[in-house]
Amino acid sequence: MTNNNANTSKKITNFLLDNIVTIVFVLFVAFGFYAADGLAPSALINEVLMRFFRNGLLVLSLIIPVMAGLGLNFGIVVGALAGVNALILTRYFEMAGMGGLMLSFLVALPLALLFGYLTGKLYNKTRGQEMIAALIVSFFAEGVHLVFALFVIGGIIPVYANHRMIIPGGMGVRATFDMGQHPDLIRMPELETAGMRLAMDWLWRVNFLHAALFIAVATLIYLIVRRMLGKRNPSIAQMPTVVFFINCAVCVGFIAIAAFSLFVPGSAMGMELANVNPIPGVTALVILGFCLLTTYFTKTKLGQDCRSVGQSQHIAKVSGIDVDRTRIIATMISTVLAAWGMIIFLQEVGTVGTYTSHRMVGMFSVAAILVGGATTTKASVKNVIVGLILFHAMFVVSPAIGRYISNDEGVAEYLRTFMVYGVIGFSLGLYAWRTLKAARDKDALD
Amino acid sequence: MDAVKSFFKKVPIATLIIFGFWALILIVGFFLDFRMTSLFSDTIQRFGMWGLFVLAMVPSIQSGTGPNFALPIGVVTGLFAMVVSMDIGFIGFNLLIVSTVLAIVFGCLMGWGYGKLMNAVKGSEMAIATYTGFAATFFFSMIWLLYNTDNDFLGWFIGRGLRNFVSLTPFGTDQILDNFWQFEIFRSTNADGELIGGLVIPTGTLLVVLLACLLMWLFFRSKHGIAISAVGMNPMFAKATGLNADRSRVLANMISTVLAAVGIIVYAQSFGFMQLYDAPLMMAFPAVAAVLVGGATAQRSKVIHVIIGTILLQGLITNGPPVFGRLLEGADITDAVRMIVQNGIILYALAQMKGGGK
């Protein structure tokens, strides 16, 4: 009986340690929402959803390097720079609309592949220290980008000196340039030109409640079908019964809320949720597509190779896997996804900071996936989704917490940045400490 | 010929590259009619400002923790010591002495905690140190914003919180060490017969830095110092000979943090301003790069590496902007070159580490 109790408490401790970052963030957001007296739920949902779709692909790009044992790829900044440079080209020629965006993706692809290849090579040279190397390489890449965008463009590559993206004098790209306005948003045609802003997001806008209802129903059906198939075919992995019922209950809850809001006219909840902006259908589908592709990737030969390399480079090598090549490919995939993710991010924001937009991409994405429960060696689509929601909810509610602490918006700004770096340092530290402790315990047992 | 060859083999590639760059800038500067004495004066002043930060790398590298990427922890500690001493009302040399004493006390405490952390995360020290340093910077930013002071030179006139830039002139600490026994050599007159400035030697600051270097050199010949080196070189062997590896590493990181804390005081007096908020964020990287330029690796370093590396890298960073600025008519390529060079050197050192490349 005591043994059983000790086991249970150990299990609880482990569960808490495994999920401590996520739990702290849930509490933080809940407290922030409480402190933000008067923050409408629809406003919170709007802000979080906007950031969710904006950052989705960037955070997704972190999964595959983690699988291949490269740790958290702060070097996605290099991919983001590929995206920015593709946009410099397409916006220089004033490309617009979805076509211009597709062309930007196309231009970014070879750039990102090249950058990813070089970064991967570097990670192979700095084995064991990939994460610090990734951070430093992002600073290094910024230096190269500065030289290219400030001196090579205009200095070596000829450009029109009076182009509005070029610094007066004809050398270098301006500090910011715009993506061009969405045709529906142009108010002053003499000043604004049509461009790529929101080109993907506004291609197909779906009512939030319809989307929520559809996703909840689809998830419920998926859960039940999988459960029923699993009864007949034991090869399909099953979740524990309790978890299954909790998941189903959550789905039913969402269906009830969405259906009630949609079909019962005049309810307070319905009116509140009707304020939620429509969601960007195409962007959502692209993110969903890459979620599925990432999950599928783990089942391919290459994905399996990545896994083995991630578990033990030595064993992978002995079993005939080209370790270095696998690691480079994982980095290249990540870099390409980051480049595309950056373009999606910037089409939503609408303005490109030529020398600044990429800076926080690595930190924020890594912090987000860690908040979702990922570690240096384990990351999944679930971590990405949970992390995106929680991390950005933190962003939205932190001003309220700043006001609560000191009546000062400035405190919130620093608190937010502190949370970003703190969460990275803390998660990496906790993971390293637990790995070290496990190794010591094992030594003690032997 | 062989002597030349063996010389080039002995001198690390990073040192040669930076020396080459700096020499190039000086030559270009010479032909652009820059006064050499003024260029060198700037370099010497910057050497004084950065010397202690770079020296802080030596104990942490020697103990096997790797370069101290968590330098901002020490820096914010030193800033806190300064803020407290200023708030109490010290000025002039008293301010310098009291804040240094406080910086050493606080630095020991912070360094102890940081050293414990580094022991808990053996194997991934560098990445975790970097983010701990970043987090510390912003944690202290909140403290600066919430700090309540009546001193109008330190805080804003309205509301609470400290200024971003605190001028040290009202406190009488502006360049106090730089001006201590300061002298000028190679003074000359220009074509019109006016006296123009020579090479300024900020004696006080240089004495502090060189004294710290000497003490560090002596320390690594003492019992504790040798223990730290042994632990860094081969932890297993050190353990077998009865050395307490964890204790040595904590001691090394305490020294490193204290040096960073005192370093920011020396830096601030020479600069004339105390910079709060996110100013310490990126301070670790030039310091790490400097010690590597001097010939250190991520696992071995000496005091001489500090002196050579700081002069070369700071010379490049300091002399680059004015010279390039005149050459390229205002467009400054130095910041880009600095980022490439500084981070390139760190990457190169990481690639040379044990376990890399195989």
Task: Describe the 3D structure.
The complex is a heterodimer of chains A (446) and B (358). Chain A is an all-alpha fold and 446 residues long. Chain A has one domain (17-207, 278-442): ABC transporter involved in vitamin B12 uptake, BtuC, CATH 1.10.3470. Chain A has helices spanning 2-35, 41-60, 63-67, 76-92, 97-125, 130-155, 208-232, 241-263, 268-273, 281-297, 301-311, 313-318, 323-349, 361-371, 381-406, 409-445, and strands spanning 176-178, 205-206, 279-280, 351-353. In chain A, the strands form two sheets. Chain A has a two-stranded antiparallel ribbon with strand order 1-4. In chain A, helix 2 (41-60) packs across helix 15 (381-406). The two termini of chain A are 27 Å apart. The mean pLDDT of chain A is 89. Chain B has 358 residues and is mostly helical. In chain B, 66% of the residues lie in helices and 4% in strands. Chain B has helices at residues 2-10, 13-31, 36-55, 57-62, 71-88, 92-120, 125-146, 203-219, 223-233, 235-240, 245-271, 284-293, 303-327, 334-351, and strands spanning 165-167, 183-185, 188-189, 195-196, 199-201, 273-275. A two-stranded antiparallel ribbon of chain B has the order 1-6. In chain B, strands 2-5 form a two-stranded antiparallel ribbon. Chain B is globular, with a radius of gyration of 21 Å. The mean pLDDT of chain B is 87.
